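Hi all, posting the design record for the shared folder.

TITLE: backbone redesign
STEP: 1 of 1
STRUCTURE INPUT:
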């Protein structure tokens, strides 16, 4: 009797690890199902999907490009919205951004990229935008863009170029005269008025390119390097 009891106990203990192994496996199976509902995308990927749609656009030179893949990814960018026949704030902002381009010099088109997207893609094709570029004396490195109306509208709203007042937002003569700038790789983004002082706009843009670490002052009283004042 004692032997039977002992044998039964050993059988029970021997089965315990297997039973114990089955329970976590069942629980893990339920957990796995839950994991499928959790996004495995990086914050950068999620930001791109929500705010930087990869719509197809056409440059004023007639080249087809993808907004995120070709114009934004890994770049420092400056972007605004306008249209060629605007008699309101567009000409003033364009003139102001020309000064920004002049201050930045050959960095525009090399490691800082400027873009202007038309609000009237139905009217402003590459030919009209090329004429606008020539008329305003825009230098190389600053691209003017058009596309399908629904894609341009998606881009405008995704980037935050809209008025909270729906009635005002529909009136293109009241479009927001802002400029968005950012460093896509670092996920740093900001906005400023398009007619702000050009040197201030440039300083804001260059801040996006600042070192992540600044070497502290040395023991001899030296100070860390810094960008020259503009």
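Okay, here is what came back for every position:
SEQUENCE:
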């Amino acid at each position: 009797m004692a032997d039977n009891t002992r044998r039964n106990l050993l059988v029970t203990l021997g089965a315990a690890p297997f039973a114990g192994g089955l329970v976590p496996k069942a629980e893990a199976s339920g957990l796995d199902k839950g994991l499928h509902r959790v996004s495995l995308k990086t914050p950068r990927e999620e930001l791109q999907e929500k705010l930087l749609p990869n719509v197809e656009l056409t440059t004023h030179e007639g080249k087809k490009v993808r907004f995120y893949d070709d114009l934004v990814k890994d770049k420092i960018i400056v972007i605004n919205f306008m249209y060629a026949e605007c008699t309101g704030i567009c000409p003033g902002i364009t003139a102001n951004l020309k000064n920004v381009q002049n201050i930045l010099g050959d960095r525009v088109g090399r490691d800082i990229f400027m873009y202007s997207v038309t609000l009237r893609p139905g009217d402003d094709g590459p030919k009209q935008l090329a004429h606008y570029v020539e008329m305003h004396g825009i230098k190389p490195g600053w691209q003017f863009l058009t596309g399908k109306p629904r894609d341009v509208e998606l881009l405008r709203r995704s980037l935050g170029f809209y008025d909270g007042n729906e009635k005002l937002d529909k009136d293109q003569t009241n479009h927001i005269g802002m400029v968005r700038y950012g460093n896509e790789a670092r996920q740093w983004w900001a906005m400023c008025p398009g007619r702000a002082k050009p040197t201030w706009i440039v300083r804001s843009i260059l801040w996006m390119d600042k070192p992540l670490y600044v070497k502290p002052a040395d023991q001899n009283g030296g100070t860390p390097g810094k960008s020259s004042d503009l």
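COMMENT: Residues 2-31, 222-229 have pLDDT under 50 and may be disordered.
Let me know if anyone wants the other runs.
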